[in-house]
C-alpha cells in the first residue's frame, strides 16, 4: 500500500542546466546529494533535506512547462531570508513574502496564519517558501494550529 510520497523529480533540459539546478538546490536551498548516477545528458542525482527527496535529471526537452503541477513548497521559518538568498543568486521572485490568515471553512472562525513567498527555480519550476506563523493578537485561538492538524 501507499506509505507517502518518496520524491519529486525535475528534468533539467541538458547538462548545463543540470549543473545549475544541482548548485541551486545544494547551495541556496541547502539540500545534500545522497546519490548520483550517469554522465552528461544521462546524469541524475537525488538530493535530500530532512527526509524529503528531490530527484533531478539532466535529460528532457528544452521547453519549460509546469503541466498540472502548479508549484511545490519548502517549509521554512524564514521565507524572507530564503527569498533574499534566491534574489541574490539572480533568480526571479514572483511573490514577495506575504502574510495571510486563511479562514478555515470547517472551523467557523479559526484562522490558519501563514507567511509565504514564491520564486522561479533554475529550470522554470515554481517554488514556494512556506511558514506557519504565530498569531500574536489571538494566541489562544491558534494554539497548536498546524496544516496537518487543521486542514486535513
Structural overview:
The two termini are 20 Å apart. It contains 4 helices and 8 strands. The longest helix is centred in the N-terminal third of the chain and has 14 residues, at 15-28. It has helices at residues 15-28, 79-88, 139-142, 147-150, and strands at residues 7-11, 32-37, 44-49, 52-57, 72-75, 93-103, 111-120, 126-132. The model is unreliable at 135-152 (pLDDT under 50). The chain has a 4-stranded mixed beta sheet with strand order 1-4-3-2, with helices on one face. A 4-stranded mixed beta sheet has the order 5-8-7-6, with helices on one face.
Identify the notable features of this structure and list them briefly.
152 residues, alpha/beta, four-stranded mixed β-sheet, 8 strands, globular
Q: Helicity, in percent?
A: 10-25%
Derived from helix and strand composition plus strand pairing, the structural class reads alpha/beta
Share in β-strands = 35-45%
State mean pLDDT (0 to 100 scale). Answer: 82
Could you give the distance between the termini?
20 Å
Shape: globular
Largest sheet properties:
4 strands, mixed
Radius of gyration: 18 Å
How many distinct beta strands? 8
Q: Helices and strands, in N-to-C order? A: EHEEEEHEEEHH
